[in-house]
Amino acid sequence: MATRKKTGRRHPLASTALLLIGLVAAGGASAAVGTIANAAPAAESAHTQALTVQDGAELFRANCATCHGMNAEGTEHGTSLIGVGAASVNFQVMTGRMPMAFQGPQALERDPMFTQEQSDAMGDWIASLAPGPERPAEEWLDTSQVSDEGIANGGVLFRINCAMCHNLAGAGGALTEGKFAPPLGDIDAAHIYEAMLTGPQNMPVFNDANIAPEQKREIIAYLHYLDDNPSVGGFDLGALGPVSEGLFIWIFGLGGLVAVTVWLTSKPN
């Protein structure tokens, strides 16, 4: 019986089979790594949405303690936050005023550094230290049901309590020592309410005894009305009040009178 002599050469399909096995193995490893990588952000997102008061304490100590102290007791660089309440934390953090970009007469608004969940967790921790103003309920932020009469009443309340700093049109204004009242256009309802409730920086506090929640909602409705109707009285001249109006009269009013006078006197007799 004849026997096949070994040649020592591979089968022609061996290289192809090895290549296919390698590709399958590499693909499986890549899919496994991708699954693990995608699972980590998902777990992190779930954790972010379920932050606890203790998480808020850790966030605060990692980002705010340099100025406000490890237990929010305050330092020479920042005030005590004990008793300011969750509403103050939400306003300062979610408008980007805190942490401050740099030391100055007042904190400036910018994009927030924290998520809403992180801000809520820090606010809950601050609220656990001592009683303070709570974040407003959604019913006081919903202005869709405020009537025209309510909007008009909000305008009256705004002019009585706010216009001396923020301008009749909510355009803002200068204060002393480099401070200013910011413009109030296109601001989130929660931040308007929290500002009235907590009195940030140079602003006085308007608690519920001064301005009731219903009235705060009417003020918010009035400001949102101004967002949609920025110049209900005609050309607003920058909404800067008597400053721009006076310049307009001097430049165009008196300038026009001078021009007419020159034209009249230049006519031959």
Describe the structure.
The chain has 269 residues and is mostly helical. Among the domains are: 53-129, Cytochrome c-like domain (Cytochrome Bc1 Complex, Chain D, domain 2, Orthogonal Bundle); 138-244, Orthogonal Bundle (Cytochrome Bc1 Complex, Chain D, domain 2). The chain has 10 helices and 2 strands, in the order H-H-H-H-H-H-H-E-E-H-H-H. Strands 1-2 form a two-stranded antiparallel sheet. A hairpin with a 5-residue loop joins strand 1 and strand 2 (180-181). The longest helix is centred in the first third of the chain and has 36 residues, at 14-49. It is extended, with a radius of gyration of 32 Å. The model is unreliable at 1-6 and 39-48 (pLDDT under 50). Residues 51-130, 149-227 form the Cytochrome c domain. The chain crosses the membrane at residues 247-265. One of its GO terms (molecular function) is quinol-cytochrome-c reductase activity.
CATH architecture label of one domain: Orthogonal Bundle
Shape descriptor reads extended
| Percentage beta strand | under 5%
Number of helices: 10
What is the helical fraction, as a range of percent? 40-55%
Which sequence of SSEs, written as H and E, runs from N to C? Answer: HHHHHHHEEHHH
Alpha-carbon Rg, integer: 32 Å
Number of strands: 2
Q: Main beta sheet, described?
A: 2 strands, antiparallel
Enzyme class: translocase
InterPro entries: bc1_cytC-su, Cyt_c-like_dom, Cyt_c-like_dom_sf, Cytochrome_c_Oxidase_Subunit
GO molecular function: heme binding; iron ion binding; quinol-cytochrome-c reductase activity
Catalytic activity: a quinol + 2 Fe(III)-[cytochrome c](out) = a quinone + 2 Fe(II)-[cytochrome c](out) + 2 H(+)(out)
